[in-house]
Design goal:
With 274 residues, this protein is mainly α. It has a single domain, classed as MetI-like (MetI-like fold, Orthogonal Bundle), CATH 1.10.3720.10. 75% of the residues lie in helices and 0% in strands. The protein has 15 helices and no strands. α9 runs antiparallel to α10 (177-188), α11 (190-206) packs across α15 (260-268) and α13 runs antiparallel to α14 (238-258).
């Protein structure tokens, strides 16, 4: 009896959580096909009277979704590529080699994690401005490609599982440190790289703060900043706002649904030593 009650409570809790997550998405999807009158007078979960795509067409042109999507893809893909490259090299050097100030460097990474993000914003803005990168795609790109402690930790779990005898054998055959990294270590880090790449992609494409602060030009809008500006101009047109939100949600949802298993496998594969 206790087991049945516990199972019933568990299923009830899962149903409530699923409803809280899926209900807003269902409301957005239904509202995006409705007129303002239908939304004002009807129930949020009522089906639209007709399957209209006018809201999507108007949002695409008015919010310049095509330009925003292009800028978001450029930032996301370049950030992921450079981030994986720098992250793997940094983690490999910190894990495999002993050198002076190694503990200091690790401590600086840890300190950067606990330091509030906004406390360094003024100094970072001044650096980006003096580098001449303000109001260009390079400004957020330089910020996004930085390696963080989470990357080092995940890569470290994989690197420690790679037998050092492989690297020693390559050294005996005359391979340089660069060749050992590119031909032996880097290919074995691809599962972790795919996981971290997906997480970074979602993080960059959903970020609004950095693009809005460092790229105010209308030709450099991203999906998140385009949504913010569109919402500010038409804050009462819920049909168009719902369509705009779905435009922004679509890339993230597609990426996550396709690579969900890859994300979980990459997070847990290197976590246990056997």
């Amino acid at each position: 009896m206790r087991r049945r009650v516990s199972h019933a409570l568990m299923y009830l809790m899962m149903f409530i959580i699923a409803f809280l997550v899926l209900a807003p998405l269902a409301m957005l999807l239904l509202a995006s096909f409705k007129t303002s009158m239908e939304i004002a007078l009807g129930n949020p979960f009522d089906l639209p009277e007709a399957l209209r795509v006018d809201n999507f067409v108007k949002v695409y042109h008015q919010a310049k979704i095509g330009t925003a999507f292009k800028n978001s893809m450029i930032l996301s893909l370049l950030s992921v590529g450079f981030n994986i490259l720098l992250g793997t090299m940094t983690a490999y050097v910190l894990i495999r080699y002993e050198f002076k100030c190694k503990k200091l460097i690790m401590g600086m990474f840890m300190f950067a994690m606990v330091l509030p993000f906004y406390t360094t914003e003024i100094a970072r803005f001044q650096i980006i401005n003096k580098m001449g990168l303000y109001n260009s795609l390079m400004a957020p790109l330089v910020i996004y490609i930085g390696t963080d402690m989470m990357q080092i930790y995940i890569y470290a779990q994989y690197i420690e599982k790679i037998p050092f005898s492989l690297e020693e054998a390559a050294m005996i055959d005359g391979a340089s440190f660069v060749q050992i990294f590119w031909k032996i270590v880097f290919p074995m880090l691809l599962p972790a790289s795919s996981t971290l790449g997906i997480i970074k992609f979602v993080e960059v494409i959903n970020d609004m703060y950095i693009p809005y602060l460092y790229m105010p030009s209308s030709r450099l809008t991203t999906l998140s900043t385009a949504l913010m500006k569109f919402a500010g101009q038409r804050n009462m047109d819920w049909g168009k706002l719902s369509a705009a939100i779905l435009f922004v949600l679509l890339p993230t949802m597609v990426i996550y649904l396709i690579f969900q298993r890859t994300i979980m496998d990459g997070m847990t594969c290197g976590a246990v030593k056997e």
